[in-house]
Amino acid sequence: MSPSPNPAQHKRILVIRRDNIGDLVCTTPLISALRKALPQAWIGVLANSYNAPVLAGNADIDEVFAYTKGKHLGSGQEQFAALWRRLRLVMSLRRQRIDDVILPGGAQASATRFAGWVAPGRVIAAPLNGSTTEGRTSHEVERCFSLLAGYGIAGTPPPCHVVADPVLVQSIVVRLPSTLAGRRLVALQLSARKPKQRWPVELFAALAKTLHAESDCGFLVFGRRCSRRPMHPGDDAKAAELVE
Fold it and tell me: How far apart, in whole angstroms, are the C-alpha atoms of residue 31 and residue 61?
């Protein structure tokens, strides 16, 4: 007698992660584990226009849906057009007949509204206090991953997974100085939107010196070009200080 089919294998699951780039990167272990456990399931992700590129080339995902947040738009005409596109997106998602919506960022008001519009069979949301479902304070990767307990998925989360654009990689490789050829490279990302999340230059420098002493690695410094926007002043001065 053949075993009964597992209905979870054919679930239609939508992960909603519409906040910051780093948060979406920290959600990729959840997606990888979900795909491994449910290879026949349909897995979609609802993201926003600036964090969605993180998922490009990710074979664990069947479809990525993205929209532009209102605060990133300009004129009233742009707002109206974006609202119309969002309405069409919601209707498209409703036609998917989603079984589960997963909210790794927690039951934030905007994410919860989106989940309601999609009309899934159930909504699974992470706690908003930075704890796992077991109640302990944890890393964002662990907090997201803990939501999979209801699928019988436990243990250590797999690594974060981002697929590099080969064309962009090659354009960087040809610009690297000869002193970095063949060496392990570590990227230092300076940018953070919120001031309280910005790491001081001296800590970046201390980390770089420690890593270099351990493995003779080279470094690439990433940051935001200076702008006139008070919320995003840019990292040019910080990068110059770090290099010095």
Answer: 8
Q: Is the pTM of this model over 0.90?
A: no
Q: How many CA atoms lie within 13 A of 219 on its CB side?
A: 18
Q: Is 186 exposed, middle or buried (0-12, 13-18, 19+ CB in 10 A)?
A: middle
For residue 179, the number of C-alpha atoms closer than 13 Å in the C-beta half-sphere is 5
Percent of the chain with pLDDT over 90: 52
CA pair distance 105, 123, nearest whole angstrom: 12
Query: What pLDDT digit, counting tens, does each position of 26-37 carry?
Result: 999 999 999 999
The number of CA neighbours under 13 Å toward the Cβ of 216 is 5
Q: 175-218, pLDDT tens digit by residue?
A: 899 989 888 999 999 988 778 888 999 999 999 999 999 999 99
Q: Which of 3, 2, 13 is nearest to 151 (CA)?
A: 13
Q: pLDDT for 114-157, tens place per residue?
A: 899 999 999 999 876 665 555 557 889 999 999 999 999 999 99
Burial (CB count within 10 angstroms: exposed 0-12, middle 13-18, buried 19+), residue 240: exposed
